[in-house]
């Protein structure tokens, strides 16, 4: 990304309470205080970096109103209520430049079935396949090389990035973002073992993704055996995550990269799952629980649980055990010594040496 | 999915031994006994849910012949030998509606090399690329946006879903199903460290996938350094699984999501690998072994092994250790106390208090 | 792969110091000494397999000059300085047959924006989308169904395989190989929790991939929140790996399959990360460190660290603990016995039995 903002452009976006100093530099990038160079915008987002402001080379710095220092020559300080929020506003402006609003309409190369209903202000990009009975909502952007299967429904203001696959009968509500390579509605992993072979159990349910869900690149969500696999409103899912059939995920969860959730498990609202955590099937993780990275959960958890380890224990207990683990080799030696010591005491007293 | 079956349609599919009651409801969905509503089909698949039959709102219920209760008004019971098998038959019928038989032929947008041989009753969907020398067998469905590289061979009755990539020289036998985003035949991860750099070792083998294999979305299978990476007949692989170069997987294995199998490892017939398990390279996992989720296997396992943990131990031992782990902090205190106690005893006897 | 080399063709590639015996067989495959059949090429890459040379059925065998045995009738020995290097040369030749040099030019089905600059000797394959402002360097091969977003820059001699997605503003230097399904530049996983909802933090940085990097199938690399996510020169990344936003990976690292690296973490040069290892965010793994498979790293590591376990400990300590873990159930029993024994000793002496 190459920005070409003037300091005045930045000020127009962040609307500072007041400012100090001035710069004629074109702002071309954003950087942390320590890494910033001339022409960069930086910010004091965390008070612990306060001492770095005085030495930063950034041309424009976003600061809280109580910051007392003075800018260097050719440097401008913009004082705002919350520097991190102000920075987010600058980033949102940049994002519009990176991802300009697509032109509405169906690209001439796209293959759209005659019975599909695509909103007139939606965008269907090159090499997309939209099958029979599909609905694509208002202002939705189906970017490129996307596949949407028979009778799937995509809501308004969604964004399906290149290579996304949404299979037959699946439903996306509004403002859903699927990053490149996401697969919604692959078959659940269900077989019956009959006469020495795994016979397929047909997977005839679907996947429903509620409003404001975002799903990271190459994640996979399986359709239900029957009824629905559900991702609740506002939940955010990172890259390479696996959601099995009939899983029900609540609202406003955060599911980090490479998590795996096995079939028919329920994750209640506001749960946070750390990277590479694994959940067994047919369990419930209670509301607001936090699961540390790489943890393995094999049984129901009450609301507000905080777990770590594989198999997981309560976080504080697991951390204590982790500290003690290092001393296990020593513990074995201590028990050896205790056994020797006790044996010595038990021996019939040897004749006195003296 | 919206079904529109009458109760008579369901009966025609499951062919009940006998029935009780009657309903005029249109059957529109399938649900568990507890979740079912009017218009749903439900079933008693597991005796432990027997008590839920009396209160289910399902309009049609599949039951074993020895179930003694009576249907509610407007509810129909269909008695069948095995309700779960009967349900699977209904699901299979629904599946045909979800995934109707594709029309044979090559979509006008597909790019098919002149030397490729595509069976006349096969289907090649939009935006597929079929390179020189490829063979596509009878009734195989290459769905959309699929890539099949030079000289690859795809058998009969296969189904390659959107975005699948099968690279040059790879072989799929018959009735192989590859879900969206599967990559068959990426290069194995092989380098020689020469003069401070990793020099690529060319990967010139291929991948062979035997009959009746199914592979889940976004899984990856690497081509062999030389000779073959093999997946045996009837083996089922879930989503986001990694199969490295020169791995040999036997017949009728189940490999759950996010498993990783390192290079040159052999997995014998009927092995089950739980989700997120990892297998080191150059080892053999014996026939019929079961590996629990998140386990790590670093050495050969004899047939019938049942392992858990990272690094894995026999399942029962690992479970016992998991129970004892919680008491490790206490164990350290007990050893502290023992040391004090023993030291007290060893002390030269203090003058008697009495 | 079906080779059709004569023994003379092989000799022309490996240029032997001298040879013994002769064969008229056509060389059709490569196999290990034990697995080789008539018509195969084999090699003695590791002295421990020396005894297998006498009984191998391979028609041509690559051997070190000091190997003393004689070929069987119809078998040819080719003596070379380093058999594994000689074999790699044969494989490199085979690789050229598998992956013939693509014809330069833009496939008529590709959608290339008018402002994109594609080198005249580059290849853009079918169904690729090249957006505005993209640069594609000399001899680069954009194979099929690839998406390259606005203003992305791809260097010379790169190879982007089917289904690859490189999003807006990302940069690949020269000789970068991306296997099928790789996603470069998905959004980082960043949200601010505001009023009970996760509000998106725009991700406006990019990804920069330096010279000679290779990335395996379906791996994902997220764009930076701001500034850059970087993969250093010569680093090799396996399949299904997750690289989060603002990660900085050094030069000549090896990152095995299914590794996950969390946001803002730095991996210095020559680090090796075993399969399924996970790195927490905002940490630094020092130069030349080795992390065993499935390990979890939560804090900074000095250069040259060798770690194992989750949470990881120094490799040798973790291995010792792994050995002792099996004896933990016994340890609890020993401590029980010690407590009983000590209690007995502390008891006021019972009246003598004798």
Quick structural gist:
Chain A has 354 residues and is α/β, with parallel strands linked by helices. Chain A is built from four helices and 38 strands. In chain A, a hairpin with a 4-residue loop joins strand 37 and strand 38 (313-314).
Euclidean distance between termini CA atoms of chain A = 88 Å
Quote the CATH topology of the largest domain in chain A.
UDP N-Acetylglucosamine Acyltransferase, domain 1
Number of strands of chain A: 38
Strand content of chain A: 25-35%
Q: How much is the radius of gyration of chain A in Å?
A: 29 Å
Stretches with pLDDT under 50, minimum 5 residues of chain A:
none
Spatial sequence of strands, sheet with the most strands of chain A: 6-9-12-15-18-23-26-29-32-35-37-38
Name of the CATH class of the largest domain in chain A = Mainly Beta
Find the structural class of chain A using helix and strand composition: alpha/beta
Number of helices of chain A: 4
Multimeric status of the protein: homotrimer
CATH architectural group of the largest domain in chain A: 3 Solenoid
Query: Major β-sheet of chain A, in short?
Result: 12 strands, mixed
């Amino acid at each position: 990304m190459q920005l070409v903002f003037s300091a005045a452009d930045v000020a127009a976006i962040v609307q500072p309470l007041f400012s100090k100093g001035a710069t004629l530099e074109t702002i071309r990038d954003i950087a942390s205080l320590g890494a910033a160079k001339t022409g960069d915008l930086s910010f004091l987002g965390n008070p612990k970096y306060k001492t770095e402001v005085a030495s930063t080379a950034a041309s424009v710095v976003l600061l809280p109103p109580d910051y007392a220092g003075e800018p260097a020559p050719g440097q401008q300080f913009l004082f705002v209520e919350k520097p991190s929020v102000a920075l987010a506003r600058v980033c949102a402006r940049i994002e519009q430049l990176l991802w300009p609003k697509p032109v509405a309409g169906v690209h001439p190369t796209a293959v759209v079935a005659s019975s599909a209903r695509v909103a007139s202000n939606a965008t269907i990009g090159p090499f997309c396949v939209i099958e029979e009975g599909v609905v694509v909502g208002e202002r939705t952007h189906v970017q490129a090389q996307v596949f949407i299967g028979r009778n799937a429904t995509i809501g308004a203001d969604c964004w399906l990035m290149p290579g996304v696959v949404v299979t037959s009968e699946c439903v996306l509500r509004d403002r859903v973002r699927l990053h490149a390579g996401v697969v919604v509605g692959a078959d659940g992993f269900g077989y019956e073992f009959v006469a020495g072979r795994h016979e397929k159990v047909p997977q005839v349910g679907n996947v429903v993704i509620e409003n404001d869900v975002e799903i990271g690149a190459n994640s996979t969500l399986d359709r239900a055996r029957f009824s629905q696999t559900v991702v609740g409103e506002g939940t955010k899912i990172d890259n390479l995550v696996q959601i099995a059939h009939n899983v029900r995920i609540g609202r406003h969860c955060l599911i980090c990269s490479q998590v795996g959730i096995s079939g028919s498990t329920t994750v209640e609202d506001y749960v946070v799952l750390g990277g590479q955590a694994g959940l067994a099937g047919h369990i419930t993780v209670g509301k607001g629980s936090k699961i540390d990275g790489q943890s393995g959960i094999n049984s129901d958890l009450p609301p507000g649980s905080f777990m770590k380890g594989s198999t997981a224990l309560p976080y504080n207990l697991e951390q204590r055990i982790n500290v003690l683990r290092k001393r296990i080799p020593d513990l074995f030696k201590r028990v050896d010594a205790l056994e020797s010591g006790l044996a010595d005491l038990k021996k019939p007293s040897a004749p006195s040496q003296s």
